[in-house]
Amino acid sequence: MASTSPDPAQCATRLRNSVALLSRQLRSGSATPEGPSVAKLSVLGQLHRHGPNTSTALAALERVKPQSLTRLLAELEAEDWIARAPHPSDGRQSVLSLTPEGTKRLKAIMRSRESALTEAIGATLDAEQRAVLLQACELIDGLSATLALLDASGATKP
Questions:
Q1: What total number of domains does the chain contain?
Q2: pLDDT by residue (tens digit) across 64-77?
Q3: CATH number at residue 56
Q4: Assigned domain for 123 exists
Q5: Which DSSP string do the residues of 92-137 spell out, in sequence order?
């Protein structure tokens, strides 16, 4: 009897859809009228993960043109999420970083997301399912690393 192995394309579609839905659910829980937009949260997350950076580097991380971030960065600066400092070696650029208040607010949002996810996992999954979820996370981390290598080599570019 031939085994029926799931098709990689089917797995890719299902994984992408599932991750996108979960990401949307987590973001929608922290996006409030008075809070930062999803786009702002994405940039703030980049600064949190990668540390201080130029607007050009942030645009590359976000996969947008630097001009696309100009207004958003100005708003984040006006709202005391980020601060600008002179670039140490390039006078044409500035380095953006989270302010202490911005870090505090971002961490509160992250804790809220983590709490919501923890609650959902606890309410939905039994011990065996949680173990499977952790195994799936390891697989997803491996896929992420592979995609990063392919992207760096240019293999994923059309």
A1: 1
A2: 999 999 999 999 99
A3: 1.10.10.10
A4: yes
A5: T-EEEEE-HHHHHHHHHHHHHHHHHHHHHHHHH--HHHHHHHHHHH
